[in-house]
Specification:
The protein is of the alpha+beta class and about 120 residues long. The chain contains four helices and three strands; from the N terminus they run H-E-H-H-E-E-H. Strands 1-3-2 form a three-stranded antiparallel sheet.
Length: about 120
């Protein structure tokens, strides 16, 4: 993977790592995974899914007709699985580095506590 995944793409792949989903299910799952921060509209989602299928990250799992309309289910492909795992590891390392720096900063900002002179306190 040459470039980091954009957040909506990362969340779509993460949603599909659980189970195959159709479009509306993906919209709901991405919203849940992001605590409502990322809201995908159908046009945006289906454009992203077309690109992800073309890139080999997502496969069409199956199609079924529900209430006279075609419902297509998508699943994570093996390449998508590997891509999601690599991106998750990259993000984990970034979080670890940031956490360590923040911990160092907080430690450096604490004033030294003066000790009582003589004897045990």
């Amino acid at each position: 993977m040459d470039t980091p995944l954009r957040e909506p793409t990362f969340l779509i792949l993460t949603a599909l790592a659980g189970a195959p989903l159709h479009g509306y299910g993906l919209i709901r799952e991405v919203a849940a995974l992001s605590d409502g921060r990322v809201t995908l509209r159908p046009g945006t989602l289906y454009g992203a899914l077309d690109r992800l299928v073309d890139a080999g990250l997502v496969d069409v799992d199956r199609e079924e007709v529900v209430d006279g309309r075609l419902r297509r289910y998508y699943c994570l492909s093996p390449v998508g699985d590997a891509t999601l795992a690599a991106e998750t590891e990259r993000l984990r390392r970034n979080v670890e580095a940031a956490t360590a720096r923040l911990r160092e900063r907080a430690h450096a900002a604490r004033p030294a506590t003066p000790r009582a002179a003589g004897g045990l306190a």
